[in-house]
Amino acid sequence: MRFHENVRDFAMERTYLRSPLIRLLLISSMMMVQACHRKEREFPANSNTLEPGRQVVLIVPEGFSGALKVVKDPDHGRKIRVQEGRIEIPFTSDGTFTVTDFRAFEDPQILGAQYSSGRILRVEPEGDLDLGEKAVWTIGSFRGTKYPHETMIYLVCAKEEKDKLSAGLR
Q: What whole-number distance in Å separates Cα of residue 40 and Cα of residue 82?
C-alpha cells in the first residue's frame, strides 16, 4: 500500500477529517514532507538498484588529462551519495576516487562528465570532435598486479590520443 493511501485511510476514519478540503490539505502536506525527506540520502546498503534513469556524473579536476580511476575498496572507500537521482563522483587531482562498492555503476544509468568548473565534457562521443578536443572514454574494469583492487577506468583525452593512452593502462 502506498504512503498516500495510508494517509487517506487514516483521514477517512476521523470525523473532523471528512471534509474534502481538510483531507486534501493533510494528504498534500504529508506528501511534501515525504518528498523533502527523499532529496538526499546515502546509497542504500541493502539494495542493488536506485531509481531508474539516475545520472552518474564524473567531476573531473579542471584541465585534467589522463586516466580516471574508480577504485573499489570496501574498507577505505567512500559511500556514494545520491542527491535527487544524481550521483556525483568528484575525482582527486590525480584522477582517483575510492568507493566501497560499484553498485551505482552496475545498473543502466546516464553517464555524464564535467570539469570541476562546471564545463561539460562529452562522454563516448559518436560524432566528430575538434582536433585536440577532450572527451571521456570508458576503458573497462581491471584487477591484477597493476591494480590490486578492482578498478574502473575512464580516459580523459582527445580522440587521437585514446588508443595510445588506453594501451598503457591495461
A: 6
